Amino acid sequence: MTPSPHYLSPDQARRIRRWEAWNMGYFVVAFITLLTLLVFSSQLGLSDGNDWSGLGIIIALLVIPIIVLQLRLACPACGERIGWQAKMMAPDQCRHCHTFLRAR
Ligand SMILES: [Zn+2]
């Protein structure tokens, strides 16, 4: 038998939506920053000849917050980390406890 579906409280759902907004917002900012850096890297002196270490560090600094954001998203119902299921948006349903990640 399948358990009856659970939903989040409106407050919990709001937290998920806020996380999505941060996640999307940050991703857009990081993407634009990265594109700008790649386009202007030679002018900025970030890719002098074969030395890409400066650009590498900046890319790492841009990527770390994405990882942190992914790790921070936990299912409000069971506490399972669901960030890695999320990618851009939170999944519809927690794979662990099958709670729908939205208000009813
Ligand atoms: Zn869950």
Largest sheet: 2 strands, parallel
Per DSSP, the total helix count is 3
Helix content: 40-55%
**What is the mean predicted local confidence, pLDDT?**
86
- Cofactors and ligands present? zinc ion
Helix and strand string, N-terminal first?
Answer: EHHHE
Protein described:
The protein is mostly helical. The chain has one domain. Helices cover about 55% and strands about 10% of the residues. It has a two-stranded parallel sheet. The longest helix is centred in the N-terminal third of the chain and has 31 residues. The protein is elongated and about 60 Å long. It starts with 5 loop residues before the first strand and ends with a strand. The mean pLDDT is about 85. Bound molecules: zinc ion. The site of zinc ion has 8 residues, from loops.
Short description, anyone?
The protein is mainly α and 104 residues long. It is built from 3 helices and 2 strands; from the N terminus they run βαααβ.
List keywords for this structure.
104 residues; mainly alpha; two-stranded parallel sheet; 3 helices; 2 strands; elongated; binds zinc ion
